[in-house]
Amino acid sequence: MKPSADPEERAFQKAIRAKPDARAIRLVYADWLDERNDPRGELIRIEEETRTAAIYSDVYWELKPRRRELLKVVEKPWLKQMGYGGTDYQPVFADIPDGWKERWRLLREFVERWYQIPMDDVGGPLKPFPLVSRLAGDADARTMEEAMYDSNVVVRAAVRRTTGAPGDDGGSLPSVGELLSRAVALRRNAAF
Questions:
Q1: 167: which DSSP letter?
Q2: Which of 4, 44, 128, 171 has the most neighbouring CB atoms within 10 Å?
Q3: Mean pLDDT in each 10-residue stretch from start to end of the chain (192 residues)?
């Protein structure tokens, strides 16, 4: 990353490199950026908020769409220097929640990280899913068409394919709990 021309910003960056886990320094830097109408300030706040939130929490999923937008406009070298933009700072399956909504959020986050495909929150509007054929494998056209408009079908197809759960051969679909158990087992056997 080329050094900033502003000596104050260089001082913030140096302090962050010296103490990368110091949240207070990052938030003061975010204030400084906000005063200059720099979108990186908002991104720092979102990253710091999501860093401590459970992946399946309401806060995480409320901030996620804006985070995605900001990651597109911020330079990659700056993100790397700050340690932002990645997904590996928190394990996906650190624990398994009890509620169905939280479990689906966990599965969606798993699919997004594994396949690098943005996933919307549970219960949002249904949208066409452009890469469903890549996830569903050899499903017939009717199933593919249905899956295009039901992201829950896509999530299940992706997790089945990744965890070795039964396919679309007329057998019963595994429950969310079974899918999570298989995903946790896969996590133990392979690094994400």
A1: -
A2: 44
A3: 72 93 94 95 94 88 91 91 71 75 84 78 58 46 46 58 51 60 62 44
Question: Which amino acid is residue 134, in one-letter code?
Answer: R
For residues 165-182, one letter each, b for 16 or more C-beta atoms within 10 angstroms of the residue's C-beta and e for the rest, the string is beebeeeeebebeebbbb
Which ranges of 36-140 would DSSP assign to H, the alpha helix?
Answer: 39-52, 58-73, 76-82, 100-115, 132-136
CA distance linking residue 155 with residue 137, whole number of Å = 13
Map tokens 């068409």 to a residue.
145
8 A C-beta contact, residue 188 and residue 180? no
Task: Report yes or no: 93 and 187 within 8 Å, Cβ to Cβ.
Answer: yes
Pairwise CA distance, residues 68 & 136, whole Å: 25
